Amino acid sequence: MKGKSPTAESLVFVRVETGKLFGEAIALNDGSTVSASTFETLEELQVQYWDMALMTEDEADAMFCTRLFRPWAEISEARWNDQLNVMPPLDWRSSPAGETFKSSEMYSGRVTHIFARIRGRYFECRDYAWKAHADLELGAVLTMGHAH
Q1: Taking the chain, what is the end-to-end CA distance rounded to the nearest angstrom?
Q2: Has this prediction a pTM greater than 0.70?
Q3: Is 11:23 a contact under the CB 8 Å cutoff?
Q4: What whole-number distance in Å separates Cα of residue 113 and Cα of residue 50?
Q5: Which ranges constitute the DSSP H helices of the chain?
Q6: pLDDT tens digits, one per residue of 73-88
Q7: How far is the C-alpha of 79 from the C-alpha of 15, rounded, in Å?
Q8: How far apart are alpha carbons 54 and 52 in whole angstroms?
């Protein structure tokens, strides 16, 4: 885009407390970076919003996604079966250690509910849909030591 520096193009203003995007950042000719909607600098925005930050779109996306994550928790066999049958499961995997699948309905963006069955016990978490089966099994196994 004309008048924008490539470095500022990917920067966004984000409310750290909520992870919500406030708006796109643009670089002015004087070298300052301002909000594309209010033309205020980070310092000016921080007067109104103490938790305002300037970061790349990827950093903002990661921050928002991690807020959606939920740790592993033990669930009932009925919940497992319900989630397995309500929609076709995503990435259903089985190994000697156990089995995992992901809800094909994303919770938000690339984050979904993930289910694991390990040694006859059932677990659920919310994380990135691209997480590998072995990592998911390990997470559920580590929870087993703490869940009663």
Answers
A1: 56
A2: no
A3: no
A4: 32
A5: 6-9, 42-48, 57-68, 77-86, 133-144
A6: 999 999 999 999 998 9
A7: 35
A8: 7
